[in-house]
Design brief:
- By secondary structure, this protein is mostly helical.
- It is built from eight helices and two strands.
- 47% of the residues lie in helices and 8% in strands.
- A hairpin with a 6-residue loop joins β1 and β2.
- α6 packs antiparallel against α7.
- The two termini are 34 Å apart.
Length: 237
C-alpha cells in the first residue's frame, strides 16, 4: 500500500501515538517488540519493514549521483514511492544526500565507504525520535554526515564540538517552526543548515536552491501549510 496522509501500511487506517510504549507485533515480519504507534485497527509495521525499500533506494541513488545540491538530490529521492511521506528512511536520506553533495562539490571523501558507515549508523535511529527523544532523526543524520567527514569520535577535540554544533543549529531551527512532525520539512532544514555550516567551517561549497518549495504537502495530513517555510506561495496567494 502506498502510504499517504499518515495512515497504516497494512490497512489504511489513521495512526494513533502513545506516550508510553506498548508491546506490538509487526504485520509484515511478525517481529514482537515495543513501540509507540499502532493504527486504529491495531496494526503495527516495524521500522525495519517500513524503511527497507526507502533506505536501499536512497543509497543506490546517492552512489551514482553527480549532484552538488543536497536538496535537489533529496527531492529526487523523495519523489519515488519507495519513500513514505514520513518515516525513519529519512534518517538515512539526510546524511546520504549531504555526503554525496559534499563529495561532488570537491570534498575529499571515499563516498562508497562513507555511505556504508552512514547506513550502519542511521539504522540505529528509530522512527518517532522527534517526539520521544527530544531530537530529530534528520538532524542526527546530518550530524552523522559531519562526524564521518571530520572523523569525529567520542575522544576527538575539534570534530566532537563541530558535529554537536551542527546538530544544535538544525534543532534550533526545527524548534522555531514547531510540530507536528514532517520528515520532509525537517530534512530540508537539516540540509540547508548543514550545507551552510559546511561552507563556513570546512571550505566546501555545495549548491543550494534560492528557494525550496515542497511538493509533498498533499500527502501529509498534518502539514502546517502557511506556517511551513517550504509551503508553496502560489497555494495561498
Amino acid at each position: 500500500m502506498t502510504r499517504s496522509l499518515g495512515v497504516c501500511l497494512a490497512c489504511g487506517e489513521p495512526l494513533r501515538y502513545f506516550e508510553a510504549a506498548q508491546e506490538v507485533t509487526c504485520e509484515e515480519c511478525s517481529r514482537v517488540e515495543t513501540a509507540h504507534a499502532i493504527c486504529q485497527s491495531g496494526h503495527y509495521v516495524c521500522d525495519q519493514c517500513h524503511r527497507a525499500r526507502g533506505v536501499e533506494h536512497v543509497l543506490a541513488t546517492c552512489a551514482t549521483s553527480d549532484l552538488r545540491d543536497p536538496i535537489a538530490l533529496a527531492q529526487q529521492i523523495m519523489a519515488d514511492d519507495a519513500l513514505y511521506p514520513n518515516g525513519p528512511e529519512h534518517h538515512t536520506l539526510a546524511g546520504a544526500a549531504l555526503l554525496t553533495a559534499y563529495r561532488n562539490a570537491g570534498g575529499a571523501l571515499d563516498l562508497s565507504a562513507a555511505l556504508v558507515e552512514l547506513r550502519r549508523r542511521s539504522l540505529a535511529v528509530p522512527g518517532g525520535v522527534c517526539g520521544y527523544w527530544g531530537t530529530c532523526g534528520a538532524a542526527i543524520s546530518a550530524g552523522m554526515y559531519c562526524s564521518i567527514v571530520l572523523g569525529a569520535t567520542p575522544m576527538t577535540l575539534g570534530p566532537w564540538g563541530q558535529t554537536a554544533r551542527l546538530t544544535s543549529r538544525i534543532l534550533d531551527r526545527l524548534a522555531d517552526v514547531g510540530g507536528p512532525r514532517c520528515c520532509k520539512r525537517s530534512t530540508f532544514i537539516a540540509l540547508q543548515e548543514a550545507a551552510a555550516y559546511t561552507a563556513e567551517t570546512m571550505g566546501v561549497t555545495m549548491e543550494l536552491p534560492a528557494q525550496v518549495t515542497c511538493t509533498f504537502m498533499a500527502r501529509n495530513a498534518e502539514c502546517l501549510r502557511t506556517a511551513c517555510p517550504f509551503f508553496p506561495k502560489r497555494a495561498h496567494a
